[in-house]
Amino acid sequence: MKKNLKLRADNFKIKVGNVSYNREQIKKVVKKANDELVNILLLPELCLTGASLYDGYKNDDILSSCLDSLFDLKKFSENIDTLFSVGLPIKEGNKIIDMVFLLKEGEICGGFFKDNFKDHEKYIFDLPENDFVSIKGEYIRIYNKSFLEIDGVKISLSVGGNEDKIIPDSLNARSNNDIDIILNPSAKIRYIGSREKTEDKIKFLSQNTTYLFSSTGLGESSTDFVYEGLNIIGKNGRIIKNNRDEFSDYNGFFDVNRNISTEDFHLNNASDLGQINKYPYISTDKEKYVEDAFEIASNALIQRMEAISCKKVILGLSGGLDSTMALLFIVKAFEKMNLPKENILLYTMPAFGTSKRTKSNAYKLAEAFGIKLNEIVIKDAVNIHLKDIGHDGKSQDIAYENAQARERTQILFDKGNMENALVIGTGDKSEISQGFATYNGDHMSSYVVNASLTKTELRYTVGYLVEKTENEKLKEVLDDILKTPISPELKNESEDKISQKTEDIIGPYELIDFFTYEFLENSSIEEIYQKAKAAFKDDYDSKTIKKWLKSFYKRLTSSQFKRSVSVDGPAMSEKSFSPRRGYLLPSDMSSEIFMERIEKLDD
């Protein structure tokens, strides 16, 4: 039997937690689809609340508003021929269930619950007890273990997605029931390279059927993540339509009663274990990698600025790699928002250790973008502060160094208050893992855009821009920044040279970043050591690797107190150090177990 169906996957800009606003947006999207004779409309997971409400899903006022809105939409659908989805949390006893309901012609046709939770969702959502839910005296059947047949079309729906499984459990349970169309409302978090993985998965799952995917995007909180905002329709193993933050339409004939295949499938071939990649966290597709990084960082910053009605940012520009990358992300965001560059407030704050080279590069970088760079010399302010606290001003100890970093942070926040500007942080994943930042100094900002990128990734990204930019001034200064030794520049040195080099203090960044990646993958110390020896056999001997591995774990454990109060910023990979949704350790954890194991390693 053949049916001519018009399918649509769509989303809209939500307001997190504003159920009534989101309900009215749903009505607009549904009415438009109905007017355009769409048969089936898929909207994202949790589209009534937003997918980034965290513990807000437990709030009784929000839950009550969701139920009221569901029945408001039910009444609204009385004159709607389009079958459409609505995602919301519901409370069943003491459990919160992530549900999606299908509505049409004044009826709630059926429901589906989420059963494949992300790690942070396991503390919020649960599974229902029965194969139905009771809402305001109405019993609604749940179809997770079967399918919903409407007008002769068998529809399966899987809420969300599990990155560790190609075929969700909910689809496996229904795989032999002649499914015609699979609906997948989602709240897909975007990482570098994640879109391609999503497309590959949909190609597989649509081999013998039609697959609609819709993920939330614009309006979601950017506290820790950026969401995909992606709508995809797949059919017969191909991507038919693929749009970001725009609807995807497909109008065509469908052969109903066709099975979905459940054969084993791998997105990527297993790598040759004999070849250990020095940089397993970096894609070989430079263009796509850099494009994703800029999209995620700029979209996250845009969301945060719009959420707080802010049109200005303030950045401390040192002329080093981190602040350079932050500025590049900021410029991208401002271009998207059509905001004037005059609203990017740049400050350089030279002190005792500032070199001519980095200061010069800060000015050249600002000039390359046509942005004014303001200079505030902080030597006098720091000297007064040191005198006030009884410091002799000569001992170049930790207080001497940190006083400079904290003075800079104080200036940026105070200027931010004066200008109503968001203070942008510059810390990267390498510094965060090693605690190489001044607590409440450069460790602190209003929003940080680099936090999920390692120093190696920053070099990789800036290096790509050197190759591709047509801005000769920008090319020249970026190239010199890449060649400049990385340094905190907090020691009183000659202005003509940089002798305080970070990699002499904490180790080569390529090793730190390799250790960080493997640590977040839960590799053992023995595994990390052996892999590092294989990957860097031509660069470092085993004693050197062991030395810096020991330093890595000491710094990692002793600096957790800094990560526990990390600033909001977007994750660009699936593993981060966010204190909310990343790798968590106690701030008072001992490093002894790691030291013991490292001592037992063979050189």
TrEMBL record:
<dbReference type="GO" id="GO:0004359">
    <property type="term" value="F:glutaminase activity"/>
</dbReference>
<comment type="similarity">
    <text>Belongs to the NAD synthetase family.</text>
</comment>
<comment type="pathway">
    <text>Cofactor biosynthesis; NAD(+) biosynthesis; NAD(+) from deamido-NAD(+) (L-Gln route): step 1/1.</text>
</comment>
<comment type="similarity">
    <text>In the C-terminal section; belongs to the NAD synthetase family.</text>
</comment>
<dbReference type="GO" id="GO:0005737">
    <property type="term" value="C:cytoplasm"/>
</dbReference>
<dbReference type="GO" id="GO:0009435">
    <property type="term" value="P:NAD+ biosynthetic process"/>
</dbReference>
<keyword id="KW-0547">Nucleotide-binding</keyword>
<protein>
    <recommendedName>
        <fullName>Glutamine-dependent NAD(+) synthetase</fullName>
        <ecNumber>6.3.5.1</ecNumber>
    </recommendedName>
</protein>
<dbReference type="InterPro" id="IPR022310">
    <property type="entry name" value="NAD/GMP_synthase"/>
</dbReference>
<dbReference type="GO" id="GO:0005524">
    <property type="term" value="F:ATP binding"/>
</dbReference>
<dbReference type="InterPro" id="IPR014445">
    <property type="entry name" value="Gln-dep_NAD_synthase"/>
</dbReference>
<dbReference type="InterPro" id="IPR041856">
    <property type="entry name" value="NAD+_synth_C"/>
</dbReference>
<dbReference type="GO" id="GO:0003952">
    <property type="term" value="F:NAD+ synthase (glutamine-hydrolyzing) activity"/>
</dbReference>
<keyword id="KW-0436">Ligase</keyword>
<dbReference type="Pfam" id="PF02540">
    <property type="entry name" value="NAD_synthase"/>
</dbReference>
<dbReference type="InterPro" id="IPR014729">
    <property type="entry name" value="Rossmann-like_a/b/a_fold"/>
</dbReference>
<dbReference type="InterPro" id="IPR003694">
    <property type="entry name" value="NAD_synthase"/>
</dbReference>
<dbReference type="InterPro" id="IPR036526">
    <property type="entry name" value="C-N_Hydrolase_sf"/>
</dbReference>
<feature type="domain" description="NAD/GMP synthase">
    <location>
        <begin position="300"/>
        <end position="555"/>
    </location>
</feature>
<keyword id="KW-0067">ATP-binding</keyword>
<keyword id="KW-0520">NAD</keyword>
